[in-house]
Amino acid sequence: MLGALEDLGKELSPDDVESIGADFCDELPVLLNGINEALDRKDAAEACRYAHSLKGAASIFRLHELVEAAGRVEKLASEGRLGEAREAIPELRSESDRALTDLLVACRNFSHFS
After folding, report:
1. How many CB atoms within 10 Å of residue 105?
2. pLDDT-derived band of residue 111, with 50, 70 and 90 as boundaries?
3. What is the rounded CA–CA span in Å between residue 35 and residue 77?
4. Any idea of the CA torsion for 21, 25, 31, 32, to the nearest 10 degrees?
5. In whole angstroms, what is the distance from residue 88 CA to residue 104 CA?
6. Alpha helices for 1-114 (secondary structure H)
């Protein structure tokens, strides 16, 4: 994770990197809630869009497990397998919690190196 921040730091200022990290931390719960609400409404396309957005945002920080979990929900939703997508949510939430913790630690360490 720190490597992803360091790579971003080659192109952006340290403040910008921290801002992007903070934006991700703020956006993650919005995306998760969006997926849940779309699944509640049985709106496969909307669930797919939210999961795809989450997957893309997580990939910026090389959060591979979160990318995989979001990709699984995206695939299931795109195939109309909403019950299975709903069953994949606990893993997605667990990976999201882990990613937030890892990102906060990495941002703290990044600010010491920059």
Report:
1. 12
2. low
3. 10
4. 140
5. 25
6. 2-11, 14-40, 44-60, 64-78, 82-87, 89-113
Q: What letter does residue 62 receive in the DSSP assignment?
A: T
CA of 12: how far to CAs of 3, 8, 20, in Å?
14, 6, 10
Over the stretch 13-71, which tens digit does the pLDDT of each residue have? 777 777 888 888 899 999 999 999 999 999 999 999 999 999 999 998 889 999 999 99
Which pTM does this prediction carry? 0.85
Nearest Cα residue to 47 out of 59, 58, 55, 39:
39
